[in-house]
Amino acid sequence: MISTVEKVLFLKSIDLFSQIPGEEISQIALITDEVLFDAGDEIFREGEPGQTLYFVLEGRVRIHRLDAAEDLAQLGERAVFGEMALLDSEPRSANATAVTDVVCLKIERDDFNEILTEKGEIAQGIIKVLTRRLRDTLDRRRVGGQSGPNPVAPGPVAATAKEGAK
Predict the structure, then answer these.
(1) Cβ(78)–Cβ(11) under 8 Å?
(2) What is the domain extent for residue 120?
(3) d(Cα 77, Cα 132) in Å, to the nearest integer?
(4) pLDDT band at 160 (very low <50, low <70, confident <90, very high)
(5) Which are the contacts of 66, defined by CB distance < 8 A and separation ≥ 6?
(6) Number of folded domains in the chain?
(7) Beta strands 61-64 and 80-81, pairing class
């Protein structure tokens, strides 16, 4: 079981929360729960309502669509996934499956929304990071004419999704 201090240190290392002060990270840590998945477990399915945001502590997660031959991403430690459906209330746009045994922290939608409402600086920090992700994606497409799968959520492994899928 991961301690609150370990959660704070871990969350601070995640891109999504990199612009948020330590005090606010501590509040976020308090609303996270640890969850374990065995290799092969479905974490969520495309089309389901998105109620949970996940952070990979250990292991690898495959993000894929039923109608696509290639994975959208292979995610590893410190990767974030599930944020799109959590933020826009749309159904999940892809499946998430544990490739290995996986340990995640999770935040439920209601808890996440409550903290965003109470702490505007957290919302601002998240918006900055998501905007930067969008700009980086647009730059990659402009420079490389990207034709392969796109990482769903940046992370150390997601950035090399094409290589990880080989």
Answers:
(1) no
(2) 4-165
(3) 20
(4) very low
(5) 46, 95
(6) 1
(7) unpaired
pTM (two decimals): 0.78
**Phi (first) and psi of residue 113, to 5 degrees:** -65, -40
Structure confidence by residue, pLDDT tens digits, 84-113:
877 888 899 899 999 999 999 999 999 988
pLDDT digits (tens, 9 = 90+) for 19-32: 788 888 999 999 99
Q: Is the dihedral of CA 106, 16, 118, 22 positive or negative?
A: positive
Using H for helix, E for strand and C for coil, what is the string for the chain?
A: CCCHHHHHHHHHCCHHHCCCCHHHHHHHHHCCEEEEECCCCEEECCCCECCEEEEEEECCEEEECCCCCCCCEEECCCCEECHHHHHHCCECCCEEEECCCEEEEEEEHHHHHHHHHHCHHHHHHHHHHHHHHHHHHHHHHHHHCCCCCCCCCCCCCHHHHHHHHC
Q: Using CA atoms, how far apart are residues 160 and 166, in angstroms rounded to an integer?
A: 11
Is the dihedral angle over the CA atoms 26, 32, 34, 36 positive or is it negative? negative
Measure the CA–CA gap between 80 and 158, rounded to whole angstroms: 10
Beta strand pairing call for 61-64 and 95-98: antiparallel
The answer to whether the CB of 138 falls within 8 A of the CB of 131 is: no
Identify the CATH number of the domain in which residue 67 sits: 2.60.120.10
